[in-house]
Amino acid sequence: MPQDTLKDHGAEKRLVNIRIWVAVALMALLGMGLISRLFYLQVIRYKELSTQSDDNRLLVQPIPPTRGLIYDTNGKLLAMNTPSHILSIVREQTRDLEGLLNSINKLVPLSEGERQRFHQRLGRRRPFEAVPLKFDLTDEEIAHITVNLFRLPGVDINAELIRKYPEGELFAHSVGYVGRINDQDLKRLDPTIYSGTHTTGKIGVERSYESILLGTPGYQEVETNARGRVLRVLKKSNPVPGQDINLFLDIDLQETAIKAIGDRRGALVAMDPKTGGVLAMVSNPSFDPNLFVTGIDSKTFNALNTDIERPLYNRASLGEYPPASTVKPVMGLALLANDLVTPDEKIFDKGWFQLPGSDHRFRNWKRSGHGWVNLSKAISVSNDTYFYIQAGKLGIDNLHDFASQFGFGHRTGIDIREERPGLLPSREWKQGIYGETWYPGETVIAIIGQGYMLATPLQLVESTALIANRGRYVQPRLVKEDIPAVQGEFWGDDIETDRAEDTDAMNWELIISAMEDVVHHREGTAHWSIGRGLKYRMAAKTGTAQVVSIAQGEEYDAEQLKEFERDHSLFIAFAPIEDPQIAVAVILENSKGASRVAREVTDAYLLPRLAQTSEEDT
């Protein structure tokens, strides 16, 4: 066999050395690269990366302020805050949001509405902000979520204060309610002030005094773990709670008014003519404001919104109705102030009136007429013919100018957003709206509060208080404190400030005496319904507003008409005459009995006070 070639150990050694040096060089290069990278990260980008690291570990959380409370005039709570456990999710701490929602749904049932509202809130949130998913968790629901938190990344349960209205429907239209912040709200709200706050005032006092009630948010810096759980609070700035508000509204009087109205549609506003404080504001039917606090489901809202009874509609300040004969005291003052009639001047009423050259008869409510009638009797028995005859003397221009001094055609400027101005027609108005001239027959029906003329119950009580004060104006107001509402946002510049203070004192007394006869004279239109047994002197005026036209020659028969076609019943009053303490305006839609509702409210308010005054005098 051939002999094996001898190995070259020197060559092998050189090869091994080369390999070793190559490996050392590579390791040196890798080490230098690693050192360079560490230098770059630890030195050059230290501040930037340190900040990012802290952001992953440290979070600044907003602390929502406690919303101010709302009380009635006697210190009873109308709007309070109650603790509620809320299930929230931080979007950045979960990779599969829909999967997480499905997991939560297996533990705590989620409605489609709750999911939908959650996704809406998700689009409006700040980074790392907890977004509410479900409110008012029960103890059982809290337990189910708590034991499963380890497999629910980003989920947390927090205790927060939410709004509650202990009186339910009683003050829904006046106090109003808070609701979830929506896209429209975001356009007008400062996101900094509303950090951590999920609701804002929607209507009523809650809306107009939002900036007062809200307060100022605080902040806390917290340390979190990798799952986003708070480990400790590092720094904290406490929030400033919102201011409490006291109203003129009286729970007991409000309850009396609602009980008196019963199941009828209508509105009532009671006001202190000395201060302008609104003592009661009723719109019936009403709704439960608590439904809106954490977000109302679409089915419930649609049911309320499409209800033919219109429970969401504030009839007291938004309802525009023909004021009918309740304007006759104002029209009487207009005739006297313009020297168009004298107190003793009489007309003969045969039951109707015709304009010269016309065969149309404007009928008195009493078909046979009232015979000889002067201004006082025309008001006390609500004679239409007297005012028909005087309409031509007064004219639409004088009528408009004088009635506007009593607030007709203008918003009262009450401190809630929801108010309409009614309608006080004029030549210019008709020309602008219809492109037509004003006709004499339209003045004939305007002078008795029909035709185009419309007024809200709030306007009616304002004009009544003006009569009670003999021309001294007071601003209707719900809140006692001398703090501004968010006026510029919704109040127009058309609020009338010029009032009828220059009217002759004798004219005031004549009209008030005639209004007194409405209740206390046996021929007065309200005498037999409320005048008997009254323990104080009341000045008042009844009214009946036509809803549908009745053909000439035909008589009104409520039984032959559908419910929503029947006449409205109106009533204005103030008492006591010698020292007015309350003014009231009532309207009952398609129903009778407004005077009896007013009597129950004035009795409830005045009798205890008069009894107390009597005891003090003795």
Low-confidence stretches: 487-497
Tell me the Rg in angstroms: 37 Å
Portion of residues within helices: 25-40%
Return the CATH architecture of the largest domain. 3-Layer(aba) Sandwich
- Counted beta strands: 19
Main sheet attributes: strand count, strand direction, barrel closure = 5 strands, mixed
What is the CATH topology of the largest domain?
Answer: Beta-lactamase
Query: What is the count of DSSP helices, taking H or I runs of 4+ residues?
Result: 21
Mean pLDDT: 88
Provide the descriptors you would attach to this structure in a database record.
single chain, 618 residues, alpha+beta, Penicillin-binding protein 2a (Domain 2), Beta-lactamase, 2 domains, 5-stranded mixed beta sheet, 5-stranded antiparallel beta sheet, 19 strands, 17% strand
In short:
The chain has 618 residues and is of the alpha+beta class. It has helices at residues 9-44, 46-57, 97-107, 112-122, 139-146, 183-188, 204-208, 210-214, 251-261, 290-293, 298-305, 328-337, 375-380, 384-404, 427-434, 440-446, 457-468, 487-490, 505-520, 527-531, 594-617, and strands at 58-63, 70-71, 77-89, 131-134, 155-164, 177-180, 199-203, 218-224, 230-237, 245-246, 266-271, 278-284, 347-349, 352-354, 361-363, 371-373, 539-545, 568-575, 582-588.
